[in-house]
Specification:
The chain has a single domain, classed as DD-peptidase/beta-lactamase superfamily (Beta-lactamase). The chain is α+β, with helices and mostly antiparallel strands. 27% of the residues lie in helices and 16% in strands.
């Protein structure tokens, strides 16, 4: 099954509603369920309650000095580009929350490859708990024969290679999402070439599950989802393990990132060395890639489904310190430490079905800048 078909599987999200015991407000327009904006402008980070997912502080664009007159242009752009959900948080508080068409705030949506961020942080947690070390060979947790390579070549591939897209596995195979051994063959030595190869990434889920000797969803729920009040579920779709959740749950994960793995005093990921490596250039082959995180503000970048190196910043209109989860059909989770902003976009493809970054990123940030500057 091709990954481009996954978006059609959003109907699966209805089974996820039971993942959260609380329902969220139905839409931005339902003002009766939205808490009043706070004043004066708070500067400390706000963490929405874990027990009440419908409770979330807001703050007005007027109080922030943002240009509210330009919001209608942003909404028009989002609507004509097949957006379902859009959120902007400032210091954890909701400034903009908008749903389009029949999509509601308690509807679940596929993160697609934006969910790689979840797996990356969970890998760091597993390492912190001494279940694994990212310098370990992948074979230590998958066993010998997870590929069709000779064992000498197989042992050269590490968990870190999986996190950085530098396994050297053959990406010219018919299906780069395939995780069957016959799909996993040698092309380059590990750490010598960068290519966005999804199969080796997906196998990280089995690495974590085998290392922790627990179900992958259960470990994720215990370590990240429940402690920060997310809901949602990883669902096997073809070869891929796709996360489905509400837009607000994605926003919660964004807050966790901006606070470097800490949630309101509770340490979710305390290993700052890992966090910094995860959200900064992880290798010299693609400066715009960390541990499964996309990075802005670098001099060059590479894109999925391409061997080309491009000059310039990944998203020129966005702040240089932005890092992100970017998924098929323009699923976006942007985090900007310098501005204390989290931006979430869920929906259908804006134009082309691209696996991660797209022209939509730059166009969207042009409109955001007009509002916040």
């Amino acid at each position: 099954m091709k990954f481009s078909q996954y978006f059609s599987l959003i109907i699966l999200s209805t089974i996820l509603v039971s993942c959260s015991s609380d329902s969220e407000p139905s839409s931005e327009a339902d003002k009766s369920e939205t808490p009043p904006a706070v004043s004066p402008i708070p500067t400390e980070t706000y963490f929405p309650p874990i027990s009440r997912t419908d409770e979330w502080e807001t703050i007005t664009m007027e109080s922030l000095g943002w240009n509210e007159d330009e919001v209608s242009n942003l909404y028009f752009f989002l609507e004509i580009n097949n957006t379902d959900a859009f959120i902007i948080l400032k210091d954890g508080r909701i400034v903009i929350e908008k749903y389009f068409g029949d999509f509601k705030s308690d509807d679940n949506h596929a993160w697609n490859s934006a969910g790689k961020n979840l797996t990356s942080m969970l890998t760091g947690i597993a390492q912190e708990e001494n279940y694994l070390n990212i310098t370990d060979p992948t074979s230590s947790y998958l066993g010998e024969g997870w590929s069709t390579m000779p064992i000498e070549q197989e042992l050269n591939i590490t968990i870190e290679n999986q996190l950085t897209m530098t396994t050297g596995l053959d990406y010219t195979v018919d299906d780069i999402f395939c995780t069957d051994p016959e799909c996993l063959t040698y092309l380059n030595d590990p750490s010598t070439f960068w290519y966005y190869h999804n199969g080796p990434y997906t196998l990280l889920d089995d690495v974590i599950a085998n290392a922790t000797e627990t179900d992958f969803n259960a470990y994720f729920s215990e370590k990240i989802k429940e402690p920060i009040g997310m809901q949602g579920l990883f669902i096997k779709v073809g070869y891929n393990n796709v996360f489905f959740s509400t837009a607000r749950s994605m926003a919660r994960f964004g807050i966790l990132n901006l606070n470097e793995g800490n949630w309101d005093g509770t340490s979710i990921l305390s290993d700052q060395s890992y966090f910094n490596a995860m959200t900064n250039t992880s290798q010299n082959l693609n400066p715009a890639y960390g541990y499964l995180y996309w990075l802005n503000g670098k001099n060059t970048y590479r894109l999925p489904s391409s061997e080309t190196e491009y000059t310039g910043s990944l998203i020129p209109n966005a702040p240089d310190d932005l890092y992100a989860g970017l998924g098929l059909n323009d699923q976006k989770l942007y985090m900007v430490p310098s501005l204390d902003l989290v931006v979430v976009r869920m929906g259908g493809a804006s134009n082309e079905e691209l696996l991660g970054p797209s022209s939509f990123d730059n166009e969207l940030w042009e409109l955001i800048n007009i509002i916040i500057e």
